[in-house]
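User: Can you model how pyridoxal-5'-phosphate sits in this protein?
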Amino acid sequence: MSRAIYAPPTSPRINFARGVPANAAIPRSEIELCVKALSCRDDFSPFQYGPAAGPMRLREWIARQHEIDASQVIVANGSVGLFDLFCRVALKPGKLVLVESPCYDRALQLLRIHEADLWPVRIEADGPVIEDIERILATARPSFYYMVPDFQNPSGVVYSLEKRRAVISLARIHGFRLVEDSRYRLLRYRGEPLPSFHELAPDVTLQLGSFSKLLSPALRAAYLLADARTIALVGTMAENIYVTLGNLALSVTAEWLSRGLLEAQVERLRRLYAPRLAAMIAALEEYSPSNRFLRPEGGFFLGLTLNASVDAATLATQAARAGIDLADGARFFVEPPRQPFLRLPFCAMDEETIRHGVRRLAEILARS
Ligand SMILES: Cc1ncc(COP(=O)(O)O)c(C=O)c1O
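Assistant: Here's the modeled complex, given as structure tokens:
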């Protein structure tokens, strides 16, 4: 029986679906040196069962960065996994959780698995619509507000200082916690950074972070900053589920950080990614001026709000046929959005590919 022969596409597919780091951004030789260094030492802890909250060396490095005690830090494999552990200790089915609209899709999915009652807070150019939060607070008390205040996934938005203060004030008055998912903060290509929620209000903030976008996502090195009691509860949950963590990858991350390599890496990433973001903005301005988008100053994503007449499903099918993979924009919302939304990642492609991809996408949109 003859079988169909797979014919590879003539030009590579354009990945506007997932926000992955560029291969060129991953410092493989530095990672290799760190693995070698760990293998040569008398210390076997990177190769053994380890403590529930992860290797102390990594916890201490992170604690020093944030000027807190190591008892307020837990590290684990992947930040969504850590968020899951936190939800297991802090959330009961039916509890109210505020989420951004649009929101990071995997966090939404996880909160649905925990059967949280999700209340969307609209995100505009300078952060959340404060009235949306106030409206729910008039009748109910949320467990927490999950947010990505710096270069939000999926919109690229950064919360203004004014809105950060307004959110903190509401959290303090109404007694709910803020879960600050913070992984793009250092990836600022223009402008001045604002203080994090954890810096402004450690009393009400838990911060999730990871080195996936700074070093390598495959090392799965993630952390949670919280009060020591929450950290202890999450640690017990981690031990019950994982027995032990992927200590080798976490120790490699600790070795890399202890060698002081982060600063130069962040500079390299800024040099690599800044022109890619600029190319995406320029291509959208040139080829797709009728669709609304913000001009982020960093991060991995740019959110595009499409004209209401565009049918998202047809767009995805036509784009796929033209070699462009898109994420389903509805996944970033609690309820289907009134206007279709697209998240466009830009870090893993060179400028020419970005320009070419946006142009092809705009042609399809013009026909939709
Ligand atoms: C806001 C946010 N949280 C969590 C993650 C998951 O990252 P990781 O588990 O690799 O740290 C991502 C990845 O894109 C993200 O954008």
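A couple of observations from the model: The radius of gyration is 21 Å. The mean pLDDT is 95.
User: Helpful, thanks.
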